[in-house]
Amino acid sequence: MKYKLDVICIQETKIKELLNIDIEGNRLICLETNTPHHGKGFMVSKKRKNNIYKFWSVNDRIAVYSSKQKSPKS
After folding, report:
1. Which strand ranges, in their side-by-side order, compose the sheet holding 7-11?
2. Which end of the chain lies in a sparser environment, N or C, as judged by fewer CB atoms within 10 Å?
3. Number of helices and strands in the chain (H, E)
4. Mean pLDDT computed over 53-62
5. Residue spans per domain, the chain
6. Range from 34-38, 54-58, 61-65, 68-72 carrying the lowest mean pLDDT
7. Distance CA 43, CA 15 (A)
8. Average confidence score pLDDT of the chain
9. Residue 14: DSSP 8-state
C-alpha cells in the first residue's frame, strides 16, 4: 500500500454481496448491503490481515472491524 496504513475503512462500494478476497497480498472485505447506493468495507494490509478477528454490518452505513492483538509481555 502506498500510504503504509494498516486498516482503511471504505464506503460507497456499491457491492451488494459479501466480498472477502486478497489483492496483492492485502485483504479486501466488502460487506453486504440492501441498497445499490451504499456499501462499506475494509482494506487490511498484508502485515495485519492475519490479525482479523471478525467484522460485521450494523446497518447499510455502519460496519465494525475487530482485530486480534498480541498480549503485552509482562
Report:
1. 7-11, 40-44, 26-30, 19-23
2. C
3. 0, 6
4. 90
5. 7-63
6. 68-72
7. 14
8. 89
9. -
Buried b (16+ CB within 10 A) or exposed e, 4-33: eeebeeeeeeebeeeeeeeeeebbbbbbeb
The residue count of the chain comes to: 74
Write down the pLDDT at residue 33.
87
Contact 34, 59 (CB under 8 A): no
Nearest residue to 54 (alpha-carbon basis) of 18, 16, 11: 18
**Rounded to whole angstroms, what are the CA distances from 53 to 13, 34, 48, 56, 74?**
22, 24, 11, 11, 23
Question: How would you class 53 by CB atoms within 10 Å of its CB: exposed for 0-12, middle for 13-18, buried for 19 or more?
Answer: exposed
